[in-house]
Amino acid sequence: MLTLFERAKDFGDRKALASNDTEYTYNELIASSDAVAGNLLSGSQDIKEARITFLVPPSFEYTAIQWGIWKAGGIAVPLCVLHPLPSIQYVLEDTQAELVIAHEDYVSFLKPLEATLGISVVPMEEILAEKKATLPNVSSDRRAMILYTSGTTSKPKGVVTTHANIEAQITALVDAWEWEKEDYILNILPLHHVHGIINVMSCALWSGACCEFLPKFNDEKVREIIASGRLTLFMAVPTIYYKLIAYWDQSSQEEQQKMSEAASNLRLMVSGSAALPVPVLEKWRSISGQTLLERYGMTEIGMGLSNSYRGERRPGHVGLPLPTVEMRLVDQENNPVGANEPGEFQIKGPSVFKEYWQKPDATENAFTKDGWFITGDIGMLNDGLYKILGRDSVDIIKSGGYKISALEIEDVLRKHEHIADCAVVGLPDEEWGEVIAACLVPSGEGLDTQELGSWLKTQMPGYKIPRKYIVQSELPRNVLGKVTKNEVKKLFQTK
């Protein structure tokens, strides 16, 4: 039996999950996941890495289904509840799944795929019905999960992790962030990404702690839950902190004080999945007294680096490698770079994924000959801590012979009093290779790009100043709140 499930037995009647106004114990989670496994096995001894897809909102049922798939020997493939049918169909076809487990809200939505793909759409209630079975002995080197990359530069790839990979990802964070069984966390993150599945839900369940689900983000509800005092940890993406700040700004002085006091009592607040703008970190610190802990991770590696739980959390930095993670910064020839020199992050360790699903060439190209995973992210060691400069293909702008970090320019732009948010991209240019362009979200009236250009000359070298601007009411983002830079580039093409 896998360690996660063995540990769950030790926590028995402790509260494991809070979902849809109901609390569930570890024993109830064990029983429901055993029933799921029994229904999936349906008389067989082992489903032998069958890909089981499921479209279920974040909930107790989601967790029981995921655990049940693992217990039956299958590969869990969680689907995104916000994705359109073609995106769902792509995953089903790519994984060659034979069935999709559906929450009642999505059964009719998925039904057309039964005829198109010959796949069975199974209502969630059927798979959760009580069923006894002898469960297989699943080894830790078996494939456990397939999560799909965002597909910003090509078609999404299925990232395959084994049970051992998942355990390594969990234990590194439990160790680094000092999880305990008395912890209580709110999960407001999508459960088709490692942030929600591993960092929040699985770390809590490994530790004997409680994870509460809020299937859809609502700033007022989140504020209420924080103010309740029951949380000890909170993890979110930068856009959620931005929304909470906006909600706090509009609240009465009494409500502001309640939220500030409650947030200050949490032992840890984490931001991830996208770069945290320094002004957002500073504003949240002024509200809550909390310095958000930034970390760095990817679908392929889980979390790789983290700022310190007890030590320095430097704004704009992602700290040091987590336990068991090996990391190096290299140039284009895979030679190590020195301090304060930009290089590409490459990662080794037990948390690194096994393969891209049925893409051996892509898998081979993702690793160096000596086994380092090539992240494609550029960073540097700055006074003892690592800093992300951006993604080589998206956030590193090559203009006039310079390599320029879009994230650095964004941090400066956000300091301007009339800019609420921004995204910087490189646009093709015959003379310069790329020119720097900025998509701006103004804060109220009064944003003048000519005045902005003059102000920027006092803040950074001339070669880093954008040459093109566009003003939008909001930035295009994916379901995790990451700005989709390719969509930003398209905005400039339409102007």
From TrEMBL:
Q: Which residues form the AMP-dependent synthetase/ligase domain?
A: 5-357
Query: Which segments constitute the AMP-binding enzyme C-terminal domain?
Result: 408-482
Q: Which family, according to UniProt?
A: Belongs to the ATP-dependent AMP-binding enzyme family.
Name of the protein: Acyl-CoA synthetase
Which species is this record about? Maribacter litopenaei
Instruction: State the organism's lineage.
Output: Bacteria, Pseudomonadati, Bacteroidota, Flavobacteriia, Flavobacteriales
